[in-house]
Design a protein that fits this description.
The chain is globular and about 50 Å long. The protein has six helices and eight strands, in the order αβββαββαβαβαβα. 29% of the residues lie in helices and 22% in strands. β4 and β5 (107-111) form a beta hairpin. It binds guanosine-5'-diphosphate (GDP). Guanosine-5'-diphosphate (GDP) is lined by residues 66, 68-74, 88-90, 114, 178-179, 181-182, 205-207.
Length: 225
């Protein structure tokens, strides 16, 4: 097993397939979507539990990574302007596969299972660990990853491990500080300053919409989108 797989090993909940995770619908556009068009089409394509199930159409991909319950699904929903596209849960460690959402028919948002949920039988997580490592290591169409941190908690050990891994494998990534609305002004300054020790974060709130524009701008700068 590779390094990243070992890192995930023991941390994922035995993941139960989510039957209806999203619907195909026309989405109201996010405030500053790169194309500047009025409508953005965001569609759930599939949940993959093995590399053979990854889409094969070669469209570029943006991956979303983070601890379980960090707000990954809420971020994806906020970016596409629809609450129900990615499944959100207040239950940490809620099971999920690697979920692919096609955006505007041009690229994918890829929602990877959250890490850091400890109540997971070791054996149950091994195949997931391999799958995620396979995705991050081998996926040629991966253009950018968002590493999402809870603004209240900042960097935790596994976040730093993942950051180190992404850098070692030359995977471009940006850091998002999520749930920023849960902090008051001085806590925000303190939290962002702490995150800055390792990387400049994009502050984000799914509640207020703060950061959506900046995150779209970052996505639009990604090559070949
Ligand atoms: P995931 O497990 O990383 O996909 O996290 P979810 O998107 O399911 O969010 C986990 C919980 O945090 C849910 O109860 C969300 O409503 C809540 N949440 C997510 N983002 C935000 C945010 O920006 N602000 C606030 N206040 N709550 C959030």
């Amino acid at each position: 097993m590779g390094l990243l797989a070992s890192w995930y090993y023991g941390w994922f909940l035995l993941r139960v397939p989510i039957l209806v995770r999203a619907r195909i619908e026309e989405q109201p556009v996010a405030p500053a979507c790169p194309s500047g068009i009025v409508k953005l089409l965001a569609e759930f394509v599939r949940s993959a539990s093995s590399p053979e199930q990854f889409p094969a159409d070669g469209l570029p991909e943006i991956a979303f990574l983070g601890r379980s319950n960090v707000g990954k699904s809420s971020l994806i929903n906020a970016l596409v302007g629809q609450r129900g596209l990615a499944f959100t849960s207040s239950t940490p460690g809620r099971t999920q596969a690697i979920n692919f959402y096609r955006i505007d028919g041009k690229y994918y948002f890829v929602d990877l299972p959250g890490y850091g949920y400890a109540r997971v039988p070791r054996a149950a997580t091994e195949s997931w660990a391999k799958l995620i490592e396979h995705y991050l290591r081998e996926r040629n169409t991966l253009r950018l990853s968002f590493l999402i941190l809870d603004a209240r908690r900042g960097w935790m050990e596994k976040d730093l491990d993942l950051k180190t891994w992404l850098e070692a494998h030359r995977r471009p990534y940006l850091v998002v500080a999520s749930k920023i609305d849960k902090l008051n002004q001085s806590e925000q300054l303190h939290g962002i300053k702490a995150i800055r020790q390792h990387a400049e974060p994009l502050p984000f709130s799914a509640v207020t919409g703060r950061g959506v524009r900046e995150i779209w701008q970052a996505i639009s700068k990604t090559h070949q989108l």
